[in-house]
Amino acid sequence: MTDQLAPSGGTSAVVFDLTFWRTRAMECRLTDEDLTALTGIPTADFGTHLTPHTLPAATLFTLARALNTSAESLLRQSGPTRRPAPEAAGHATVLHAALLEADRIHPDDLASALEWTPHRLKRAAATLAAHLDQPSSPHRLLHTDTVIHLTTVPGLLDPKQRQNLHNSGHTAASLAPGEAAALTRLLHHTVTGLPADVPPEQIPRLAGRRLLAPSGEQPAPHPDVLFALGLAARPLTRTEAAADGPASAPAAATPPPPGAR
What we know:
Layout: E1 13-16, H1 18-27, H2 32-39, H3 46-49, H4 57-66, E2 75-78, H5 91-102, H6 107-114, H7 118-132, E3 139-143, E4 148-152, H8 159-167, H9 177-192, H10 203-208, H11 223-228, H12 238-244
Antiparallel strand pairs: 1-2, 3-4
Helix pairs in contact: 1-7, 5-7
C-alpha cells in the first residue's frame, strides 16, 4: 500500500480504501466506535453510505490525522475489473493464510517459511491479533515465544456440539497418543502380515476419522492412509466408498488374545 493515488484511467473513480482504513485503525488502536465517532457513519454502513461525496473534506483530514497518515492514502482508484494482486496483500493477511495452512508452528519456523524477519512476523501478528479481536470473529491468535496458531473463541460451541464433532472424527485435532499408537501398530501388523491388534475402544474413533477401512471383518488401515504412505497404488475411489457406505467399526472388532500372532 502506497500513500499515492493510483493513476486514473478508463472508467475508474476515486473511492475510500476501507481495507487500508481498517489496517491503520488497528495499528493506531482505534475501535469501530472511534471510527464511527470520527466519520459520523456507523462502520457497518461504510460500504453503502461512506463515499468521498458524503464525507466532508474537513472530516477526512481529521480522520487522516487520527490514523497517522495522509488524506490521499485513504483513497484509491476503483474500476469495474479492479482486483488487488495477491502480492499486494498485507502482511497480516498473509500471516492469516499461512496459519490456516500450517496450524500450530514455531514462530521462527514460520518466519523462515515466509522469508520474513522476526520483527516483520511480530508486527504482522500484532495487527492480525487486533483484527481478529472483534465480536464478529470466531478466531483468536495465540502467539508465544514457542508457538503461534489460530484458536477459537471459548464458548461458541456448547459441550455437546464439540463432543459430537470429536466423536464423528471431524475435529481438526491431531491424533491422541493412544490413537496414534494404535494406528501405527495396525500399520506394522498389516505390512508384516500379522493379525490386527487394535484396542476395541480405539476402533470407533479411528473409524470415524477414516483411518480404518470402511468394511472388512478385521480392522485394517484405510486405503487412503496406505496410499498416503506409499503402501498402496491408489486411494479409495468414490464408487468404492459409496458401495461400502460410511466408515464404521468392522463387524469383528475384538482383537486377538495377548501374545497371539
